[in-house]
UniProtKB/TrEMBL annotation:
Keywords: Membrane, Transmembrane, Transmembrane helix. The chain crosses the membrane at residues 28-46, 163-186, 198-217, 229-250. This is DUF3592 domain-containing protein. It comes from Streptomyces endophyticus. The lineage of its organism: Bacteria, Bacillati, Actinomycetota, Actinomycetes, Kitasatosporales. Residues 1-21 are annotated as: Disordered. Residues 10-20 have a biased composition (Gly residues).
Amino acid sequence: MSRGIAARVGGEGAGGGMTGKGDRGARTLMWLMGAVLMLALGAAMIPEFRAAQEREREFRAAPVCASVPVEVSNCRWKQKFTVRSVDLHRGSRHKPPEAELLLPSRKPWHVTFRNTNPVLSGLEPHDKVVGLIWRGDVVDLRDTEGEQQETSDGPLDWPTDRLAGALACLSFGAAALVGSLWSALARGNRCHDAAGRVVRLHGIPLGITALLTLWLQSANDWPARSLPIIWGIVAALILANMVGFVVAALRGQIARAGGEA
């Protein structure tokens, strides 16, 4: 694996004359533009994460309604529904899974979901379900077997989603920015150019790790605090690996490994 990374880094620098320099300059510019974009996206997700975290705190602190409210209320209450229709939209990336529910008065209530499991995929017309309502939205749906699933309006998963997105964008963007600037300022020094490429390439596993950690946390129903802890441990290992490659690049070992490949 180490030899493969070295060959890739060394291979990026292959090519002679003005053509090789032009290609390297174009690649560095593309990485630099991508770094700025990802940093901007990551920075934009930080206030979204804080807002989502505050909304989750408000939901958890919301009391149970003493009676069914006649207006939108901050308290939580359970409402029985009958399933009218279910559309999972399998194969469509633009339409979320959805269901149309009926109140006892036969008034319809449209609900969307972020995924199809564990409740929505098993629902059929005329099934009985219970919805948890907060601030005028069905935030949670439960079937007769006790399984429950958050809707698109549910407040519980959004903070971790935004945190993972911010970690992915900021870590990738920071590594890409540092590595691109390092290569841009190398001024023909092949060792420093290779070191810059090492740094920015390690931004890829840093970003992917944040997304994979989110998937594992969601799939295993781990607490939200596990996401930054697990990502931090893996990120530290990736950074340690990066430092080793940077040292090898500065010694000229990466370029030699790339030339041998």
